Amino acid sequence: MVLLENDSFLSELTKLFQKARLNGSVTMTFKRYDGRTRPTPRPGKPPLPEPQEHMCLVRAKFRSSKIATVIHQKDVNKFQVAYSSLLKGNIDGLKKLKKPKAKTKAE
């Protein structure tokens, strides 16, 4: 998994959406991330220090290519605006749902 900066993550994500346009899908996960790189210690050992700010870990996967980025609290609004515009531009290949016809009840 490649950890990228926010801007390069969005550009790579655009490339993944373009590859998945014909067939396939891109899987996205958003997860709360506190910056820990080590597991929590066993009982009786001194605990890890508490994180000063919480972050968001964003992962994207298309077939065998995986990318990820970490978003800090101060960058969430800027990333959200850029991410939503990217989604609006790339989600156009959705299939239309066929609505079932409502049966009229004979009385």
TrEMBL record:
Compartments, record wording: Cytoplasm
Region (Disordered) location: 32-52
Keyword RNA-binding assigned: yes
Key word Ribonucleoprotein present: yes
GO cellular component, one term: signal recognition particle, endoplasmic reticulum targeting
Signal peptide: none
GO molecular function: 7S RNA binding; endoplasmic reticulum signal peptide binding
UniProt keyword annotations, A-Z: Cytoplasm, Ribonucleoprotein, RNA-binding, Signal recognition particle
InterPro entries linked: Signal_recog_particle_SRP14, Signal_recog_particle_SRP9/14
Biological process, per Gene Ontology: SRP-dependent cotranslational protein targeting to membrane
Start-end of Pro residues biased regions: 40-50
Cited Pfam families: SRP14
Subunit comment: Heterodimer with SRP9; binds RNA as heterodimer. Component of a signal recognition particle (SRP) complex that consists of a 7SL RNA molecule of 300 nucleotides and six protein subunits: SRP72, SRP68, SRP54, SRP19, SRP14 and SRP9.
Function: Component of the signal recognition particle (SRP) complex, a ribonucleoprotein complex that mediates the cotranslational targeting of secretory and membrane proteins to the endoplasmic reticulum (ER). SRP9 together with SRP14 and the Alu portion of the SRP RNA, constitutes the elongation arrest domain of SRP. The complex of SRP9 and SRP14 is required for SRP RNA binding.
Family: Belongs to the SRP14 family.
Protein's UniProt name: Signal recognition particle 14 kDa protein
The species this protein was found in: Phaedon cochleariae (Mustard beetle)
